[in-house]
Amino acid sequence: MSRMPDQPNNEPVEPKTSATQESGEVVLDAAGKSLTEALRVSFVILKVIMAVLIILFLGSGLFTVGEDENAMVLRFGRIRGMDRQDRVLGPGFGWDFPAPISEIVRIPVTHRQTLRVESFWYYMTENERLQGASRYAGATLNPQQDGYGLIRNDPLAGGEGTDYNIVHCRLSVVYHIADIEPFFQNVYYETPGPGQDFLDVAGRTVDPLLRAMTEDAVVKTLVRYTIDQALTSAGQLGEEVRHVLNAKLEAIQAGIVVDLVNVEQITWPRQVNEAFEESIQAQQTRRELIRDAQIRAEQTLNESGGPQAVMVLEELKRIEAERQAAQEALQTGSGDAEAARASLRDLENQRTVLLSRLSGRSGQMIAEARAYKTQVIKNAQANAQYLESLLGELRDRPALARVVLERIYQEAIEEVLQGVDEKILVQSPADEIRVLVNRDPRIPQEKERQPRPGGPAGAPR
Known about the structure:
Shape: elongated
CATH architecture of the largest domain: 2-Layer Sandwich
CATH superfamily of the largest domain: Band 7 domain
Distance between the termini: 197 Å
Mean pLDDT: 78
CATH class of the largest domain: Alpha Beta
CATH topology of the largest domain: Tetrahydropterin Synthase, Chain A
Number of domains: 4
Largest sheet: 4 strands, antiparallel
Number of helices: 13
C-alpha cells in the first residue's frame, strides 16, 4: 500500500522574509511619515496665509473721511443706506467691504470754489488781460467777439414801451457743494485719478454748467435795471443774480449752493465813453443839489419849527381838512350839528397842543402872538372900563364925545399903520377914505433883506 502525502494544514503560514525586505519597508515608512508631516505643515502655512489675506482684505475696507468732506458708500454701484444719515457720512472713520464690492466716494463740502464769468465783457487778448489794458475801441461793437448785456432804459418820451442800453460786466461766482447725494446723482463729473484734486477735476464739468446758468441769470436780472441803477447798485445786482442762480440750481437738484456773486466791474460801451462821462457828471451834480436842498430844508424846518416841525405840519394839515369837513357839515346841516361843534372844539384843542410843540422861530412867534393877544385883551378891557366910567358925561356933552371918539380912532389908525411899508389912501365918492396897505408882497421881502441899523451886512431886519 502506497503512502499518502501529508494533507495541508488550514492554519496560515507566515511568509519568511529576508533582511533586505525588512530594511526597505522601514525606509518606506519613514518617507510616508515625512510626506505626511510636510503636507500637514503646508496646510498649516496655507491656512495662515489665507487668514492673513482675509484679514488684509477686510482691513482694506477701513476708510477715513476728512474734516472738509462728506462721503457715500457705493455697494455694487448703488448708494448704501435707507435714510440720509446712513447714506451720507460725515468726517471720521468707517468700514465697508473693499473693492470691488464697495466703493467710497468722498466729496469736499466746505471748500469754496471761485468761477470767473467774462461772457459779458468786451474781447481782450491774453496779453491785455495780463497787463490790464484794453485795445482801442472801434467805431461799433463787434457782437462776434465782444460780450455785452442788455439793460432797461428809461421810458421813451412821447412813446410807449422802453428802449435798451448795453453794458459790459465781469463777475465772479463763489460756490460750494452743499449736498453730495443730489450732486453725485444729477451732476456729471470726472472721477479723480491718483494724486488729483477732486475739485480741480470736477470743475471741468461743473464750471461749464454753472457758467451757463450764471449767464442766463445775469440776462434775466439785468433787464430789470436801468443804466444808472446798474452802475450804482453793483452789490444789489450781484445779490439778485445769486438768488436767481440758486433757484435754478435748486430746481435741477444739483446740490450746489452759490455763496456770493461779485460784480467785479460794470461799465458802459467804450464807443460812448465821453457821452456817459458827461451824463454821470450831470447826475452827480443833480444828486449834490438835491442833497444840499434836503439839508437846507431840514435846517430851515429845525430853525423855524424845531425837530418835530414836519410831524406837526402833517398833523396840522390833517386837522385843517377835518375842520373844513366839520364846518361844511355844520353849514349844510347834513349831519348832527352838536357832533360837528364838538368835533370843531376837539380839533381846536388838538391844534393848540400841536402848536405848543413847535420850537425855533415858529414857537417864538406863537409865544409873542399869545402875549400880544393877552395884552390887547387887557388894553381893550381897560379902555372899555374907562369909557363906561365916562359914558354918563359923554351923553350929556356930545361935542366932547365926538372929540374923544376921533382921538381913539386916530390912535388906532396910527398903531395899525405904524408897521405898514406901503400906504395908499383913496377918496371914494361916498365920502369915505379907503386905506390900501402892503399890496406888493415884494416890499416886505426886500425890507427883510436890508441890514439892520448898526447890524452886520446881510442881517435881516
